Amino acid sequence: MAALLASLISKAQTVTFAEHIAPIIYNHCTTCHRSGEVAPFPLTNFQEVSGRGDMIKYVTGIGYMPPWKPNPQYRKYQKENYLSATQKQLISDWVNAGMPQGNIALEPVLPVFPSGSQVGVPDLVVSFAKKYTHAGDNTDEYRYFVLPTGLTSDKKIRSMEFRPGNKKIVHHALVWEDTTGAAAAADALTPEYGYAGGGSNATDLTQQQLPGYVPGAFPVIYSNGITQKLHAGGDLKVQVHFAPTPVDELDSSSINIFFDNGNSNRLLQTHIMLPLPGVLVNGPFYILANTKKEFHGRYTAPSDLSLYSVSPHCHKLGTHWKVYAIKPTGDTIPLIHIPSWDFNWQGSYQFKRLIKVPQGSVIHAFTGYDNTTSNVNNPHNPPINITWGEGTADEMYYLPISFLPYQAGDEDIVLEDEVTGISNPIIQQITDKLYPVAPVPSSESIRFGYTLATKGNVGLRLFTMDGKLKKTIEPESYHLPGYHTGDLNVSDLPAGVYFLEFTKGKIRQTQKVVVGR
Question: Which is deepest, 63, 111, 321, 444, by most CB within 10 Å?
């Protein structure tokens, strides 16, 4: 009887934007749906959300948005972003009720998102040497760029963050380290900046892979002694997929690199399953026109492994992925199931805990393809025979599996808190910190920056040296973790010395500001 009464009360409750819908939108949608990000329109307030209410109801109801493709019942991952059945129903009920705003006092504050980096202040930034022009001919382009690191000694990294220069055209990016000079030599053969991808050579993608970029994804931050190595004198080889555009667009991207200065000593390794002899059970990798095909690949663990992540990838003919391991005992370890592949929303999926795969276990990877006219995403009409290629109109079977050599107790290591859904910020080595301003002195404006280890309310104010408030920059507003930057106009202030005060809870830090004339 109590359960029935609770159900009736719930159904009688009016669903409002302020109390029920805003928390869903701000937590799951606004990261991408805001000014300067990849989504085509913002969702940052009641007017913007209610103006697209019917569409939001539809795309969330069918699971198209938020764009989380793995089956959540098959395996859990870090930083998952999908809606529960209850959240979808709340959105539907709200739209059906006419989208009432409700009591605005109950609406959560819109978060202030990191502006300089989602991770923190980088130790090294490597950038494009020049701007590249992506032609406005409505075609995809895969292009390689070579970014020298300039390192004079080997470094271990705890994070790498690709920052797209033009989010309208950067679809995704893959990153490798090249210590041979081969990528630089290939670039030198072309008069324009970078060199073209899209060839049929799969072996070019077998090098050690570093963290890449897909829109909306939070950068990978290693913890628990896990790291990757960059070598002195090496280059970063970056493959950027530029999306079609009707007009010429410029891009100049960069990569933030965060070094690990601690005692991290476990180097992450990557095995890439490709459609080569000995991998595919039912090769060769060839998809006839007007047919559907599922390829089955296998990889046998040569020793005990601790799996960290999987990153399945194919193109527009892809329909699904299913990857699991079978132990020598016959037990099955589920790794990932993407029941409805979408080329627009691919990613790398880090497990919440390291997964032990014993020596002799066989990893099975099944990938489906639809090369018929019934596939609305088929780039060829009529369909043609398709084989391997990096171009969007080609196809790929590409599965990087990142792992560590197994050590006792690995299966007990928590990579992401399974209750709160966040990684330990102390392990990530991020701190709440206000950094020195620049330039000093300044007569026009100063650039300030601060990092946050955890979300919270931030205050930022400028005082005279005798404690008089001159400007309020951040009035105790709600901020998300990461590196926040901004500019402060000081042209209207008398010459002299001031101090910039940063507050977050009980934390108070200051930096000196010098205004000159």
Answer: 321
The distance from CA 439 to its chain's CA centroid, rounded to whole angstroms, is: 32
Q: Where is the domain boundary, 230, 264, 298?
A: 264
Domain's final residue, options 87, 106, 125? 106
Q: Cα 438–441–444 angle (5° rounding)?
A: 80
Q: Is 423 part of any domain?
A: no
Whether the full predicted model's pTM is greater than 0.70, yes or no, is yes
Collapsing DSSP states into helix, strand and coil, what is residue 142?
A: strand
- As a whole number of angstroms, the distance between CA 13 and CA 9 comes to 6
> What phi and psi, each to the nearest 5 degrees, are found at residue 203?
-70, -20
The pLDDT assigned to 1 comes to 44
Q: What is the per-residue pLDDT for 68?
A: 92
Decide: helix, strand or coil at residue 27. Answer: helix
- Maximum distance among all alpha carbons in the chain? 79
Task: Find the CATH number of the domain harbouring 486.
Answer: 2.60.40.2550
- Phi and psi of 87, rounded to 5°? -65, -40
How do strand 332-338 and strand 318-326 relate by DSSP bridges?
Answer: antiparallel
Residues of the chain with pLDDT under 50: 1-11, 199-203, 418-428
Give how far Cα 268 sits from Cα of 99, 223, 236, 262, Å: 48, 11, 17, 16
Same domain, yes or no, for 149 and 42? no
339 and 384 in a single domain? The answer is yes
**C-beta separation of 486 from 112 below 8 A:** no
Residue ranges making up the domain that contains 274? 268-418
Q: In what order do the strands lie in the sheet with 507-515?
A: 469-479, 456-464, 496-504, 507-515
**Run of H or E residues at 4:** helix 2-12
The predicted pLDDT at position 417 comes to 57
Judge whether 452 and 432 are in contact, CB under 8 Å: yes
Residue where the block lists tokens 């085509």: 40
In order of 125, 237, 437, 500, 517, the CA distances from 492 in angstroms are 33, 46, 18, 16, 11
Domain count, the chain: 4
Length of the chain: 517
Do 510 and 442 belong together in one domain? Answer: yes
Identify the CATH number of the domain in which residue 330 sits.
2.60.120.230
Match 């926040």 to its residue by tokens. Answer: 484
In angstroms, the Cα distances linking 69 to 82, 392, 396 are 9, 19, 18
